[in-house]
Amino acid sequence: MTEFTTIASGLRFPEGPVVLPDGSIILVEIEAGRITRVAPDGAVDIVAQPGGGPNGLAIGPDGKLYCCNNGGFAYHDHGGLLVPGGQPDDYSGGRIERIDLVTGAVEILYQSGDFGCSLRGPNDIVFDAHGGFWFTDHGKTRPRERDVTGIFYAKADGSYLEEVIFPSENPNGIGLSPDGCTLYAAETYTCRLMAFRITAPGKIDATAGLGGAGIPLYRPAGYKFFDSLGVEAGGNICVATIGECGISVISPAGELIDFVATDDPFTTNICWGGADMMDAYITLSGTGRLVKTRWPRPGLALAY
């Protein structure tokens, strides 16, 4: 059994962890609508309060924090677990925000309607080596209906936004292969890991699969749903897995090579830090914890 150390607890549905150079971890508390810094000793400080539903995070080329804001969820308590639900009455709209880590100032970089795009529930984000970023839109669920959404590419200066992949079945986690040539996206309800061949910055091969651009790489059996993902330096894709909870480690060839079990049904994200990039930080969102463990392989260093 993998041993975990709890770094912080009492968080309100934490997700989107990013390890900073000083060893602290920036993450979101989706239910509380805030961005939080967790120091190596577990001290917790609020960095910014964008409201809505801050979700995936990434550091951009300007050193600022880029945030996928899903506009909020409805929540309920289920036997001591904080569980997200459908679109809330106070849904504030999907957007991409840029946050100054020093001042906490929040700027809306893109919002629904910009460049003719509809943003319902932006979820997760990854920067490429060219200074642009890919992000998923998980959409929103309402009684008897669910949004059909896509995967987007944008420039960090606010000058360009495009829905590159449509449709996608409630895409959640997103990541890039070490060589930057493959885009990975995890779909929650289909529990599929999809692979897309990148042909140029912000462009993919639209003819790669029989049903369009994506190639289904892996889909597990059992009561599982995919959330966010991270990529190892060697190319394996580590997908946070809800339900039968843990981290599913999938090879670029589509083989399950490991499953690291956790004790929270809402295991939602993984990132890496440390001098050897083998300190893994995992968000256990239902119980409100950030935990740490030593990973058997190094994680991939992010673009910024």
UniProtKB/TrEMBL annotation:
Residues 13-284 form the SMP-30/Gluconolactonase/LRE-like region domain. SUPFAM superfamilies: Calcium-dependent phosphotriesterase (SSF63829). Pfam families: SGL. InterPro entries: 6-blade_b-propeller_TolB-like, SGL, SMP-30/CGR1_Lactonase. PANTHER family: BLR2277 PROTEIN, LIPOPROTEIN-RELATED. This is SMP-30/gluconolactonase/LRE family protein. It comes from Sphingomonas qilianensis.
